[in-house]
Amino acid sequence: MTAVPQRTIGVAGLGSIGRRHARVFASIEGVSVVAYDPVPSPPDDGVAVQQVPSLEALLDRGLTGLVVASPDRFHAEATVAACEAGVPVLVEKPLAASSAEAGRIVRAASDAGVPLLVGYVLRSYRCMRRAHGLIASGAIGEPVSFQAMLGAYETLVVARNRFGTAEEGRLYFDYSHEWDYLRWLLGPVEGGFALAREAGDLPLSQPPNVVDAVLSLRSGVTGTVHLDYVQARGRRSFTVVGDRGSVSVDVGTGTVMVVRGAAPPSVEDHGQARDAAFRDQAEHFLRVADGREAPRADAHDGLAAVCVAEALRESASTCAWQLVREPVATET
């Protein structure tokens, strides 16, 4: 019998998403988890992992890889330290709290030659991979437009550390998933216009809790994106319209609807549990750490999403169209 290699994954940050990572990695045969939490969270009987008192102590544990799942403001410090220590990194989205910090991470990973995966877990969803394949194969012809919808009041409900600091504009960065998957499916975002406000009368709110954006992509495709911290029943869906048909995805249910020309729609079920997607991402990260696969979403992808988030936040504050400029990775 072939022995299962023993690997240790570090988790920096034990908020809601860090605990999910810890649970998922610990469920993989041959993987142990050790953690450091820069913002100590209340105990959780559902996740019992060994903890160390500092990031340095965590990096000294001979890690196979490090998951950075701390609040955004800690991402750059932990990720750069891991890169300098030669430890592969899975950084939760967004890559960093600003494009300047994200650029610093890109340079650190490049200089150290360390593989870095950004936690855009939607790329691990079966329904998203199916949509990507359909669009790339030309099944709907040339893409011409898109519409995306995200409702996520649940994010505020399950958060452990979110309300400890006063930060505006978190919605643009929390759901940089949208900027990443649109780039993955249709190409880089070149510019956009956004309107944002705080609306409704809900027990929990972070301004703005409603964002509506119009985006222009390098390919010429244009479309709209709605984000909110209002809808209690979480919702994530999108439609890409092509000149020969369309593909619509309900990420929550995993349903993919394909329309080709005037033919009746074809509905496919690609549903899966959320933990299944995180496990797929975790197993992919282990292969990335071993040098067997390239990251599905690398540091440059993470930087691009942060740049879109910043540009849209600036657009909403100035009521002006903003270009998306990705910093050059070699800048100092």
Question: What is the topology?
Answer:
Blueprint: E1 7-12, H1 16-26, E2 31-36, E3 50-51, H2 55-59, E4 65-68, H3 75-84, E5 89-92, H4 99-112, E6 116-119, H5 126-136, E7 143-151, H6 154-158, H7 170-174, H8 177-186, E8 189-197, E9 210-217, E10 222-228, E11 235-242, E12 245-250, E13 255-260, E14 266-269, H9 274-289, H10 299-318, E15 322-323
Parallel strand pairs: 1-2, 1-4, 2-3, 4-5, 5-6, 7-10
Antiparallel strand pairs: 7-11, 8-9, 8-15, 9-10, 11-12, 12-13, 13-14
Helix pairs in contact: 1-9, 3-4, 4-10, 8-10
Outline of this structure?
The chain is an alpha/beta fold. The chain is 32% helix and 26% strand. α1 packs across α9 (274-289) and α3 (75-84) packs parallel to α4 (99-112).
Pattern of helices and strands: EHEEHEHEHEHEHHHEEEEEEEHHE
Question: Major sheet: size, sense and barrel closure?
Answer: 9 strands, mixed
Point out poorly predicted stretches.
none
What percent of residues are in strands? 25-35%
Query: What's the overall average pLDDT, rounded?
Result: 93
Helical run tally: 10
Class per helix and strand makeup: alpha/beta
What is the terminal-to-terminal distance?
Answer: 51 Å
Which overall shape is indicated by the principal axes computed on the Cα atoms?
globular
Summarize the amount of helix as a percent range.
Answer: 25-40%
Radius of gyration: 20 Å
Main-sheet strand order equals: 14-13-12-11-7-10-9-8-15
What is the total tally of β strands? 15
